[in-house]
Write a structure and sequence with these properties.
Blueprint (H helix, E strand, L loop, with lengths): L23 E4 L2 E5 L5 E3 L8 E5 L2 E5 L2 H4 L8 E4 L17 E4 L19 E3 L20 E3 L20 E4 L19 E4 L19 E4 L42 E5 L18 E5 L18 E4 L19 E3 L20 E3 L20 E3 L20 E3 L20 E3 L6
Parallel strand pairs: 6-7, 7-8, 8-9, 9-10, 10-11, 11-12, 12-13, 13-14, 14-15, 15-16, 16-17, 17-18, 18-19, 19-20
Antiparallel strand pairs: 1-2, 2-3, 4-5
Length: about 425
């Protein structure tokens, strides 16, 4: 059969060609933040490995801190490499806008950091930093604070004074709790949390009225840059779990939350207020400990991308079929035994991944998903497929590997747009 020439054994491609960006992310030393119109703005120049001065468009490179301190007012980008102690003289750079500490050893930040009144970006990530001075709250122009992969266990209350802060990265730290003052960060757009010691989120988190992206991950190793994109998603090989087993009821007050990623958390139930997240577009939970979804989940009318992988679901929660704008649904590696007949209500669905489950059959109504481009059914117990799948004229990828299918369906030739067909034997 000619169509079998398209049988592919390749690594999984991205789910969709046109993928939405995730609010903000860091890639190759550069931060990107989503602007109000949805475009991505490169808001930080790549970290420099030397101390630099901006002169027009060409940086002047200084060989040491001593030479840089000769004209501290001229420096607006400063990168410190290979230093054991950050000197108090750092406070002399009163026009500094971006500070990168690309050194492993410093465990303290000088009090004079508060003198940097023009500072917009502060990156202390991947250092031995153990605490922040109270003077951090004096940085009234600070927009991005990167404290990921440090030894921080707590934040000073003065963190709430950073009125212009938009990005706060606390991933892979030792953080035990968030201070109540975090509720004062009214302009915060992106919050990364990742700590095996984190036990709860404060109730006041619901007051972060402009928060659009929240990532809570507990992996020992940072995921690749595209992992921050909720559609790409490969789970890092090493995972440590935190003690964050619930979200506060006030969580539903995050009216502008668009993107929520929960990795490795033992949360078994979402609060009833979850349905109040009217602007939520992307939800990823993996590995998932969820045993059910609240009835209010069906109120998430703007949800487009839903991933609940490596979970406990034996049946597809009915509330999911009430999500009219869902484009991607991934329930890979759960315990599903069947899909509901009302799956055809998801008329905007473009990608469906229910691989690695216990499915024995599919409802005929799956053929009514007219916009479906990707269908992943590998590693189930399916013996026969409904002929209605042949009606999926937009289908580009069909994965059926490791199912006890003995005969290639004759309707395969009807799938004129099919590019990837995986029929590898279940006996491999």
């Amino acid at each position: 059969m000619s169509r079998l020439n398209r049988t592919a054994e390749m690594s999984s491609p991205h789910y969709l060609e046109a993928q939405p960006h995730f609010g903000a992310f860091k890639s190759e030393g550069r931060w990107y933040v989503q602007s109000d119109d949805g475009s991505m703005v490169d808001c930080i120049i790549n970290s420099q490995n030397t101390t630099t001065q901006r002169t027009g468009q060409r940086p002047v490179i200084y060989k040491s801190m001593t030479s840089a301190l000769e004209n501290p007012a001229d420096i607006d980008i400063l990168s410190l490499e290979g230093v054991d102690v950050i000197p108090e003289s750092l406070g002399s750079f009163n026009n500094l806008q971006r500070l990168y500490v690309g050194s492993y050893n410093p465990n303290t930040m000088p009090i004079t950091i508060g003198n940097l009144q023009n500072l917009q970006v502060l990156d202390f990530g991947y250092s031995q930093l153990e605490y922040l001075p109270d003077s951090i709250g004096q940085l009234q122009r600070l927009q991005i604070l990167h404290l990921g992969s440090t030894r921080l266990r707590y934040l000073p209350d003065s963190i709430g004074q950073l009125q212009k802060l938009q990005v706060l990265d606390l991933g892979y730290s030792k953080l035990e709790y968030l201070p109540e003052s975090i509720c004062n960060l009214k302009d915060l757009r992106l919050l990364y949390l990742g700590s095996a010691n984190l036990r709860h989120l404060p109730k006041v988190i619901g007051q972060l009225e402009n928060l659009s992206s929240l990532v809570i991950y507990t992996n020992e190793k940072e995921p690749p840059s595209d992992e921050l994109h909720p559609i790409c998603g490969t789970v890092p090989s090493e995972t440590i779990y935190n003690h964050l087993d619930h979200l506060p009821e006030t969580f539903g007050r995050l009216k502008n939350l668009k993107n929520l990623l929960l990795y490795g958390s033992p949360i078994t139930q979402l609060p009833d207020s979850f349905g109040q997240l009217k602007n939520l577009q992307i939800l990823t939970v993996k590995p998932s400990s969820l045993t059910s979804l609240p009835d209010t989940f069906r109120q998430l009318k703007n949800l487009q991308y839903l991933t609940i992988d490596s979970g406990l679901f034996e049946t597809l929660p009915e509330v999911i079929t009430d999500l009219p704008n869902l484009r991607l649904l991934s329930l890979s590696d759960n315990h599903l035994t069947h899909l509901p007949g009302q799956i055809d209500r998801l008329q905007h669905l473009m990608a469906l991944d229910v691989g690695h489950n216990n499915l024995q059959s599919l409802p005929a109504s799956i053929g009514e998903l007219n916009r479906l481009q990707i269908l992943r059914l590998g590693s189930n117990q399916i013996r026969q497929l409904p002929e209605t799948i042949g009606q999926l004229q937009n289908l580009r990828e069909l994965r059926l590997s490791r199912n006890p299918i003995d005969e290639i369906p004759s309707w395969i030739d009807q799938l004129s747009e099919l590019e990837i067909l995986d029929l590898r034997s279940s006996r491999e």
